[in-house]
Amino acid sequence: MTPPTPLSSSSNIERLVAIMARLRDPKTGCEWDTVQTFATIAPYTIEEAYEVADAIERGDMDDLKDELGDLLLQVIFHSRMAEEAGDFALADVVNAISDKMERRHPHIFLGAAEGGHHLWEQIKAAERGAKGHESALDGVAVGLPALLRAEKLQKRAARTGFDWPDPSGARAKIDEELAEVEAATTSAEVEEELGDLLFAVVNWARKLGVEPEAALRAANGKFEKRFKAMEVEAGDAFEGLDLDAKEELWLKAKRLPSL
User: Fold this and answer.
1) Which of 68, 88, 108 is the last residue of a domain?
2) Same domain for 178 and 233?
3) 191 inside domain
4) Which of 25, 39, 197, 250 lies most in the core, judged by the most C-beta atoms within 10 Å?
């Protein structure tokens, strides 16, 4: 493995900043890059963040290096567009996050007597208040994946005391929501009640100390491996098998030590 390259005093990032500026040049830049906006680039930003997570999940450090570069490019891209609009530049982004990290770690940088997660949350709450947020739920990004956003909303609500005292209440809520799904009579009602059921499952996971996003990701991976094992076992005949035969293959895959 190639040893890490230190960040030079002139900053390797300046090279990437210059590349983006040239790509965005309205006269000599790239015809694709010059017409992009915050809205058109946002999906790519989300995609790159997921690809970083995927590389981490696979433990592929070479891939992680590449994907982090792609994600960094997204930061540079958004910052360049903001600079062109006269809103802010990359330096403002870096200074803002640096200020935030120092502010949220007063025991490390500002000489406070104590720190910890509880203080971090208090400081975040104060920051939300300074921005004019009135609700405890303000500031939870709408663009988050629904599963993750549900968990964050629940955690915010719990800080105000709106929470089950133990997991049993959250577990009972699942039975209640499941019954409402079964009682639904229209497709709209089914969709609504299924949403409530999923929200309740996330809440139970939270009360059990399980991160629902990670749990579902692991379940997805497990299903994928077992299904692929079924396909390998059956070969070209797989699609033509009846459900009973496929169920037998599924049970066999479940018994494999690695699956």
Assistant:
1) 88
2) no
3) yes
4) 197
Written as six digits, the tokens of 123 are 């400081």
State pLDDT tens for residues 57-79: 899 999 999 999 999 999 999 99
Residues 244, 176 within the same domain: no
Which of 91, 87, 123 lies closest to 104 in space, CA to CA?
123
Q: What is the pTM of this model?
A: 0.69
Whether the CB-CB separation of 150 and 144 falls below 8 Å is answered with: no
The span from the CA of 56 to the CA of 51, in Å, is 9
Task: For 132-182, write each residue's pLDDT tens digit.
Answer: 767 889 889 898 889 999 999 999 999 999 999 999 999 999 999 999 999
Instruction: Map 35-83 to HEC letters.
Output: HCCHHHHHHHHHHHHHHHHHHHHHCCHHHHHHHHHHHHHHHHHHHHHHH
Q: What is the DSSP letter of 7?
A: P
The total number of structural domains that make up the chain: 3
Residue 4: predicted pLDDT: 77
Tokens of 72: 């960094």
